[in-house]
Amino acid sequence: MTATSIFVNLPTTDLERSKSFYEALGFSINPLFTDENAACVVLSDTIYFMVLTREYLGTFTDKQIIDPKTQAQVSIALSRDSRESVDDVLAKGLAAGGSEPREAQDYGFMYSRDLDDPDGNNLSFLFMEPAAAEKGPEVYMAEQGAAASA
To answer: I need a labelling partner for 46 at 20 to 30 A (CA). Which of 6, 8, 13, 143 fits?
Structure first.
């Protein structure tokens, strides 16, 4: 069975700015699927952001295109290998014109930080302790509490 590819369509008011922003995060742009209306941002072999001008995105739907600076339709969460990697990608995003809409969230088993791109599209970068992913957060946290009290 072929792996399912995921294409997330995101609106932008400035395509060149968006391309620069996502490249600053360490992602690449696939020039074969990039033109004056859209840029294909490669996150992995199967995950892509299609950053589209608002006008072009409007040709895909009869619904109103929201303003991601003031409305949320989706929040995209992307995992990282460590807390430091989460902090690193946030630093890159902030330096490239993004903003952090709220404080870091530390749940003990998971650490996450939100990053809005310059258009306001929300990305969450997170690190989850491997044991919590395997056992579930409740069991992991209970084990941590038992270890702390021993």
So the answer is: 13
